[in-house]
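Page 37, continued from 36.
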């Protein structure tokens, strides 16, 4: 079976000297592992196409009962003009890329998630102020994973947010997975802030870091076998250096 589709590169792993395994989230077939041949001489155009979260168009061929698929006629569908040259945006992409390949299961297919990722990456590339982009992205991502925090008009009046139930509540939960006080207020603001309003979310570097840690904790609670994110330290370092 062969079909033309778009795909977003999630991960590449060296397999042999001239081969890599690329995990690509395709729109029509979901997340697939591909065996890709690369050139030993100079810089391969294929390697350039397989940078993290690159959006491709490609012809995908999947053989029945085969663990690895293949593709041909690949080309970059949406060239990024700023992400490769902007250290903050590049760090955000590396971090979000790690979150995605550690949380999306093989063969998982979701048209709406694909469209969200494609649109979000273009917003990141074209936007001039992106310090809160990853917070908006992760809070939106929970909607496509099926455990979005429940929002209503009483959120600001309730004292706690329960990570387990995903709800704001007036009663203190009987476990440790909740927030209250200042961070509960920031959490409620973050959930109701649109992308265009993210720059208006007035938070310090420490608050940004705290909200991110809470978001990742929330995601880990609702997904099995999610490990630590190695690129998180790089993201924090880039943000810190930008304020020096």
């Amino acid at each position: 079976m062969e079909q033309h589709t778009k795909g977003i590169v999630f991960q590449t792993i060296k397999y042999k000297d001239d081969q890599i395994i690329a995990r690509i989230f395709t729109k029509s077939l979901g997340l697939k592992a591909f065996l890709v041949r690369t050139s030993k001489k100079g810089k391969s155009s294929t390697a350039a196409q397989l940078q993290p979260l690159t959006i491709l168009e490609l012809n995908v061929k999947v053989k029945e009962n085969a663990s690895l698929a293949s593709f041909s006629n690949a080309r970059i569908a949406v060239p990024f003009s700023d992400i490769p040259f902007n250290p903050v945006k590049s760090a955000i992409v590396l971090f979000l890329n790690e979150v995605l390949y550690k949380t999306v299961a093989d063969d998982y297919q979701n048209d709406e998630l694909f469209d969200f990722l494609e649109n979000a990456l273009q917003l990141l590339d074209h936007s001039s102020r992106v310090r809160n982009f990853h917070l908006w992205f992760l809070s939106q991502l929970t909607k496509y994973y099926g455990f979005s925090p429940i929002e209503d008009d009483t959120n600001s009046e309730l004292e706690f947010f329960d990570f387990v139930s995903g709800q704001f509540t007036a009663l203190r939960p009987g476990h440790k997975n909740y927030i209250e006080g200042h961070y509960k207020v920031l959490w409620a603001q973050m959930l109701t802030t649109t992308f265009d309003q993210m720059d208006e979310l007035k938070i310090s570097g420490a608050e940004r870091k705290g909200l991110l840690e809470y978001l990742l904790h929330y995601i880990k609670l609702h997904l099995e076998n999610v490990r630590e994110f190695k690129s998180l330290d790089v993201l924090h370092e880039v943000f810190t250096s930008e304020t020096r």
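The chain is about 35% helix and 20% strand. Flag for discussion at group meeting. The first helix runs from residue 45 to 49.
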